[in-house]
């Protein structure tokens, strides 16, 4: 299905078009990776709604990105339960091995590092969401393994050997 | 001997599939409700059971349902609040991931009771697995005739849609959730009108939490008396407790309402980590005022916790041990509310911004004399003066930390450092 068809199918679930803006933005973001201005305008046009209605949602909700982000969005929970279980040290570790600060993206465009509010998986704190998946009970070693497997997946998909199993500078 | 019902299928292999759910007696409650009860009788059953909302407020569910006007000429909506965002809470995610049909059946029975033909389940966007499982469950239930047109050969038509959230804690506030469903920024509405009269698309709307809806089929099958005999009279029933933080066995526990907090944390969840002692427990998500160790004998139900100056909230139990700085915990909690404030009203938006600044400097050892009194004054300015409960939750949590651990705050200011660093 094209993006337009997906959005129109989602809109059929509601009695008015405005309700379909949120699902439409999620569909558009999945398609484009993020939501630049022209994509927001396209969403408004497909639904036939005011552009301002689309802009205001895209900038209100934290899961919408109006700027490009890395291929893997590392979203580390630092709310209370995860903080009590060591998320602060994990953040330091991630910043060290990726050589970026939170909020930044690695120069190769692979990883964006963010801290997020409670992910609702406190039984496996500390938790990090990467793409659709939750990774729990994390420590430095498990974070390293996770980063390696994410990099290996990309290299494999591209048909090239992983340049290094370790991040540069380590 | 207490028998868990809500988590019965939770560890079953393929617990999310219709075949597993049916093999355990699933959808019998829907059949029973449609064949043996008029809609009003289902409302009466839930009233007699004294089921109270599991989302946090504890409002009697049957009474909420009975506020829906009978004849308005408008469609009626059922909305399920699955925007589980209260820090420390993960019960609804686990139900949706591992036993989603329990929610689907709860939705169908509840919609029959209130006369709704459409339900929207507002699931937070991060819960990708839960959303997929719920989508699959809805599709299976449709194919089997538990949803759709003329359900089980009756005149009852009912459709369930999933609405995926996009990261905003405020959507857990029911009227903000309705605005979000209508495609607006999530900001709470003035009440009245209450949603039962004018909710989604200005139509009569009932909003219930996932766990609340999951209780309904069990009440239909086992009777209101069975439900009422579990736990205290005024807030009965089986209850899901989410235990996390500095505790040996974090996890989701189904136990009677009213179980002592100490028993939950020390027996069921294994107590503190080796060599540590419990210092305090937050009993109901970070909106709930913290309870010092000496208060752990309180019962985990709406009324006992309210009497003890805290609240059951979402039953997100966060255990804090003696190696942890309470100023740091309080700062993190207020930072959370500050981040999630929708910005609609001044006391919440500005008051929390100010409180975060003061707390951060106290925690960093740069606090000044008068800072604690400043925080007291900020709590007073926020509490009771905001549109919704978000500001109240922040103020109550901070007040409790200042009350029970004031010495710890004072040491930070006096010694210009955090004693835990």
Give a description of the structure.
The complex is a heterodimer of chains A (170) and B (421). The longest helix of chain A is centred in the last third of the chain and has 19 residues, at 140-158. Chain A has helices spanning 3-11, 21-32, 37-47, 51-60, 80-84, 87-98, 140-158; strands at 72-77, 111-116, 128-130, 133-135. Chain A is of the alpha+beta class and 170 residues long. In chain A, strands 2-1-3-4 form a four-stranded mixed sheet, covered by helices on one side. In chain A, a hairpin with a 2-residue loop joins strand 3 and strand 4 (133-135). By secondary structure, chain B is of the alpha/beta class. Chain B folds into three domains: 18-228, NADH-ubiquinone oxidoreductase 51kDa subunit (Rossmann fold, 3-Layer(aba) Sandwich), CATH 3.40.50; 238-321, Ubiquitin-like (UB roll), CATH 3.10.20.600; 326-415, de novo design (two linked rop proteins) (Up-down Bundle), CATH 1.20.1440.230. Chain B contains 17 helices and nine strands. In chain B, helix 5 (91-98) packs across helix 6, helix 13 runs antiparallel to helix 14 and helix 14 runs parallel beside helix 16. The longest helix of chain B is centred in the C-terminal third of the chain and has 18 residues, at 346-363. Chain B is globular and about 75 Å long. Chains A and B meet through helix 2, helix 4 and helix 5 of A and strand 3, strand 5, strand 9 and helix 13 of B.
């Amino acid at each position: 299905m094209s993006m337009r068809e997906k959005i129109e199918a989602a809109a059929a679930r509601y009695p008015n078009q405005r309700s379909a803006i949120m699902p439409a933005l999620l569909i558009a973001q999945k398609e484009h990776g993020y939501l630049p201005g022209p994509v927001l305008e396209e969403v408004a046009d497909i639904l036939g709604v005011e552009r301002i209605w689309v802009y205001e949602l895209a900038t209100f909700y934290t899961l919408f990105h109006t700027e490009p982000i890395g291929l893997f969005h590392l979203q580390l929970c630092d709310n209370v339960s995860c903080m009590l279980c060591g998320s602060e040290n994990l953040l330091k570790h991630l910043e060290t091995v990726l050589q970026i600060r939170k909020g930044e993206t690695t120069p190769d465009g692979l990883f964006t590092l963010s801290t997020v509010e409670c992910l609702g998986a406190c039984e496996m704190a500390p938790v990090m969401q990467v793409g659709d998946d939750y990774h729990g009970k994390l420590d430095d070693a498990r974070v390293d393994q996770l980063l390696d497997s994410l990099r290996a997946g990309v290299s494999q998909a591209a048909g090239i050997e992983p340049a290094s199993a370790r991040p540069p500078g380590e | 001997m207490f028998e868990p019902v809500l988590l019965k299928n939770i560890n079953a292999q393929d617990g999310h599939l219709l075949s597993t759910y049916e093999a355990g007696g699933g959808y019998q409650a829907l059949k029973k409700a449609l064949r043996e009860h008029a809609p009003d009788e289902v409302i009466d059953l839930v009233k007699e059971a004294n089921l109270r909302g599991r989302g946090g407020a504890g409002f009697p569910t049957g009474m909420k349902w009975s506020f829906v006007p009978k004849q308005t000429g408008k469609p009626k909506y059922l909305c399920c609040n699955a925007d589980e965002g209260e820090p420390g809470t993960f019960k609804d995610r686990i139900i949706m991931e591992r036993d989603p049909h329990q929610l689907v059946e709860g939705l169908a029975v509840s919609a029959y009771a209130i006369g709704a033909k459409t339900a929207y389940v507002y699931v937070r966007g991060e819960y990708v697995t839960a959303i997929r499982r719920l989508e699959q469950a809805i599709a299976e239930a449709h194919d089997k005739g538990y949803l759709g047109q003329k359900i089980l050969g009756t005149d009852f038509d009912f459709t369930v849609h999933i609405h995926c959230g996009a990261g905003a804690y405020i959507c857990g506030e029911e009227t903000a959730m309705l605005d979000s469903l209508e495609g607006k920024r999530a900001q709470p509405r003035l009440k009245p009108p209450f949603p039962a009269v004018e909710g989604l698309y200005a139509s009569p709307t009932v909003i219930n939490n996932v766990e609340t809806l999951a209780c309904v089929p069990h009440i239909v099958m086992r009777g209101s008396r069975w439900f009422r005999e579990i736990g205290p009279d005024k807030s009965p029933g089986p209850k899901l407790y989410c235990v996390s933080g500095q505790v040996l066995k974090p996890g989701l526990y189904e136990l009677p309402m009213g179980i002592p907090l100490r028993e939950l944390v020390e027996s069921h969840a294994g107590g503190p980590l080796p060599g540590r002692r419990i210092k305090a427990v937050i009993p109901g998500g970070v909106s709930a005022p913290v309870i010092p160790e000496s208060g752990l004998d309180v019962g985990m139900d709406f009324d006992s916790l309210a009497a003890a100056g805290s609240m059951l909230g979402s039953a997100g139990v966060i255990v804090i041990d003696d190696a942890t700085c309470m100023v740091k915990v309080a700062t993190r909690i207020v930072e959370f509310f500050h981040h999630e404030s929708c910005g609609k009203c001044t006391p919440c938006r500005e008051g929390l911004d100010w409180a975060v600044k003061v707390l951060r400097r106290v925690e960093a050892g740069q606090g000044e004399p008068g800072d604690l009194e400043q925080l007291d004054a900020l709590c007073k300015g926020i509490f009771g003066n905001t549109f919704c409960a978000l500001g109240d939750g922040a103020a109550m949590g901070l007040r409790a930390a200042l009350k029970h651990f004031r010495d710890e705050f004072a040491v930070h200011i006096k010694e210009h450092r955090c004693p835990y660093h």
